[in-house]
Amino acid sequence: MQVFKLCMKIIKKNMSVLLIYVFVFVTFSIIVSLSSGSRNKETDAFTVSKTSIAFLSGENTPLVNGLKEELGKIADFRDLPDETRVLQDALYFREVSCIVRIPEGFTEKFLKGENVQLEKTSVPDSASNVYIDLSINKYLNTAKLYLKLFDNISEEKLVECLRSDLANSSPVVLKTSNPENTGAGMEYYFNYMAYTLLAILLFGMTSIMLSFNQKELKMRNECSPLNPISMKLQLIAANLFFAVIAWAISVIFSIIIDFRNALSPNTFYLVLNSFAFTICGIGISFLAGSLIKNQDVMSSVNNVVILGLSFISGVFVPQHLLGDNVLKVASFMPVYWYVKANNTIAELERFGFSQLKPIFGMMLIQLAFALAFFAVALVVIKQKNHE
């Protein structure tokens, strides 16, 4: 096992650089853990935000009082004198968002079925005024319906019926995340893992291949009594061993940081997806090791290529924030499919075949990329051997 031991010594020599990537991954994960904890808290109640309005009425009738009572559910009333200058200043300085004025004789005309309108002045393009309009229309339209169905209904009875009907409401529950969906937090860790894992694999495997691809060392190995097949098998075993260890360490760190969700089905499929990406990372590293000729180029590939892939594929910037053209370019890269699979897994609440089928498809795409990288690398190696 001389070749295998030598590969481990090469990895050990570069351990300081590899630990930097691990430290970056852990730091990112902790930051995301702290920030996503507050972002993913469940909001189990909905409270209407009341807007300030001025309600001016030229008459005091049960119908008008009922309307004011209904508006009181979504509005706070400001007592303002019925003076044009004061009301204009209140609107200008946003002391109130709208002014509702009931003209004198409104109730009598309304009960007779005449077309009568309220006077309403509001701040232009104010979203809160939409709720005021909806509340007024709901009250008056319901009253018109009663007047149409019951000819001799009294005003007091009408207001009582309106109060009873409009008291019914549907509860609103807002949830920023499903409490059973435990993959939302782990999604961030495994997305960041794409950068860390790919950098570690590329740096470690390329270091091994650069050492063995040195012309003088390669010629000496060919002259050694060691069986060439055994040498290649040990070299492959060392690379696979290093890749699996790097993947396992990355997964363990992710699980430690969010151990509460470690046993969830979402986490299982995130781990499975990361293993598929690891195989793809081995293919990328194998191809890079076949093309790269010195350490300086290897550092450039790590800093430029991997960072670039991470940014356009959704590792650092969520995919839903990226432009369509950027995503189209990124779809030709395996990192895009890895991140997309993670995002899909994080949203899963059921784990039937129909839900998992697109995820398995994305994993197969990553494996197809891996085969393509291996094939290209073999062609490159064959060309170099003929030189």
Overview of the structural elements:
By secondary structure, the chain is mainly alpha-helical. The protein has 2 domains: 2-39 and 179-386, no CATH class; 51-166, abc type-2 transporter like domain (abc type-2 transporter like fold), CATH 3.40.1710. Helices cover 68% and strands 5% of the residues. The protein has a 4-stranded mixed β-sheet. Helix 3 packs parallel to helix 7 and helix 12 (295-313) packs across helix 14 (334-346). The chain is rod-shaped, with a radius of gyration of 34 Å. The model is unreliable at 37-44 and 177-183 (pLDDT under 50).
Strand elements, count: 4
Provide the number of structural domains: 2
Query: DSSP helix count?
Result: 15
Question: Judging from the principal axes of the Cα atoms, what is the shape?
Answer: rod-shaped
List low-confidence stretches. Answer: 37-44, 177-183
- The end-to-end distance, rounded to whole angstroms, is 30 Å
β-strand percent reads under 5%
User: How much helix is in the residues?
Assistant: 55-70%
Strand order of the largest sheet: 2-1-3-4
**What pattern of helices and strands is seen along the backbone?**
HHEHEHEHEHHHHHHHHHH
- Radius of gyration, in Å, reads 34 Å
Provide a quick synopsis of the model.
The protein has two domains: 2-39 and 179-386, no CATH class; 51-166, abc type-2 transporter like domain (abc type-2 transporter like fold).
